[in-house]
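Quick bug: Beta-ketoacyl-[acyl-carrier-protein] synthase III output formatted oddly.
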Amino acid sequence: MYQSKIAGLGKYVPENVITNDDLSKIMDTNDAWIQERTGIKERRHIKKGDGNTTASMGAKAAKIALERANISKDDIDLIVFATLSPDYYFPGCGVQIQEMLEIHTCPALDIRNQCSGFIYGLSVADQFIKTGMYKNVLLIGSENHSGGLDFTTRGRSVSVIFGDGAGAAVLTRSDHNGQGVLSTHLHSEGKHALELSLKGPSTNHWVPEIIAENKAAGDESQLEDIPYYPYMNGQFVFKNAVVRFSEVIMEGLKANGMDVSDVDMLIPHQANLRISQFIQQKFKLRDDQVYNNIQKYGNTTAASIPIALTEAWEDGKVKEGDTIVLAAFGSGFTWASAVIEW
Ligand SMILES: CC(C)(COP(=O)(O)OP(=O)(O)OC[C@H]1O[C@@H](n2cnc3c(N)ncnc32)[C@H](O)[C@@H]1OP(=O)(O)O)[C@@H](O)C(=O)NCCC(=O)NCCS
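Here's what came back:
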């Protein structure tokens, strides 16, 4: 049985910074509310005409990861792309990035597990490398949220939280036994699927139907529930997140005969700074043992862990020999953890 390790990391975020004050000019919100509830100060949004899409941002992050891994695109055996905001309904972003990076005809797989997407993808990559079927896997998480959020007061509890960006990792077969991905644990609970969801357009709620509804309503701003904007039961999500984050982190540590004292760095999915702080306090971790950057980028869903991991690595906060724990929770509900010996 082989072991996989992360050989290179990269990130890309659009240049366009949107502060809380910027949002308060277009909806009834304010910097104090957003910072107090979420810790977010600003986020990045794709600007019309800047050429960024979910796939193209992913390609930019992937290029950096490949360079740092010193692995040629010709040696990539599998592309795994995690997103909830693909450029097209079909095909997925995996094949788009294959074309953008001129990667040969290897398989390209799309992962639809929202905020847990990157760890789900990491687990898929790890399994293929472990069995020896593939040696090098390019894993990307990327999101264009700003193109699909409700920036009126009606949508404020969701739209202030999310931002755009991409992160990527190159996974390769590890030469040193014990170094690399030690374990991944994945979970989901479909009974809460609609608590954080975007219902349309979909085959259940098809475009002509939506157009007809809007026409009937006359003025879209009068509609309370618009299926093509995300719905989030915020407090319910929060309560489930803190429980599942804790469980899945402990599950990963226990599987490796470790406990919280073995963790050098926890990189949680950047859902909400208050969730990360809750976990930090619960596990009695110091500030330098938990990496957060939601303050700058908001919640970038499948991109948040690879962006945070890349930044932590760039800052020298992830070093050889460190035990790194990744953990995520999100829509589905889905949740997951990975324990990595760097
Ligand atoms: C979204 C979240 C920040 C909202 O915080 P909350 O404390 O639950 O706030 P509520 O939704 O109860 O709203 C409280 C009040 O603030 C208002 N409000 C909502 N969004 C607001 C905004 N952006 N600006 C100002 N006021 C806002 C509400 O209308 C409500 O007003 P009311 O009391 O007059 O009715 C919080 O529930 C949360 O972080 N949930 C988890 C989200 C998450 O992690 N999602 C991603 C999972 S991967």
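Actually, after a second look the formatting is fine. DSSP finds eleven helices and 13 strands in the chain. Closing.
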